[in-house]
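User: Structure please.
Assistant: Input sequence and predicted structure:
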Amino acid sequence: MNCREYTEHFLSADADGELTPEESRSVDEHLRECAACRERLASERSFKKMMRERLTLAQTPVELKAKILDALDREEQVKVSEFTGMRQARVLIPLAIAALALIVVATILRGRQVQRVAEEPAQEPMAAQPSGALPSDSLTALNDTIPAFDWATTKFSQFEVSFDSNVQAATAEDLQRQYHEQVQLFPYVWDFSQMGFRLVGGRIEPMKNGTPATFTLYRGAKGDIMCTRYRVDSMMIPRGGRHLNGIHHLYNYKGYTVCMTVENGVCCMLVTRMPVDEFYQGLDRLES
């Protein structure tokens, strides 16, 4: 079993405890060797637990409840002679269903923020960006201005010239442990050695809004790769990219290749000057 097969066919059922004994054995064997999929499973379980709690405990907004009850009261007051009992049922039942749907939608929206970027100054990675951003499978150049990408590519170009590591770590394992201890990010560091890149080092520095961000730099014959990670309350996935495993989203952005991943309240952006196709293929091999 590879990462793609697990993510597409077993992740949701695994989080719900619905795998057969044979499937569980195969999944457990894969998870023992794959830190990335263990992280995805933890994220899936956390999200589903949150949704169950929110759907149970969240209160319907007072204004919405009042509008629904008012609409039902008005409907009940309609007395038209040609409406038989069956006719009234056909009118009232769809209205009740619609009201229930509104309650459910409102509850879900209160429990889970819509994935969008918060409005902050353009130089910060959480700045506002175009709406209606749903990923496509196109590799055309992204024409919209994405402040998060501008911020990341600017940091990348700076670190290409000079990168001052301020995290004391001799190995990738030490680095991910330091990240976890200092900024409470899930302990995960990309391993690009199979693509011919070596780990240069790591750096932690605050963004303008005070949120700490980690910067991990990799270097190889084809240039550099920078991995930036930071916590987000909400983040929109821009349209116009190409998705890998439904998790990673790649873009050709102003001469850079940017890969965005948003999982478990953490945004990860990979930036490199490698062509999108080549970087996509490399990530696909790593994920598989």
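Strands lie at 197-206, 212-220, 223-231, 242-244, 248-253, 256-263, 266-272.
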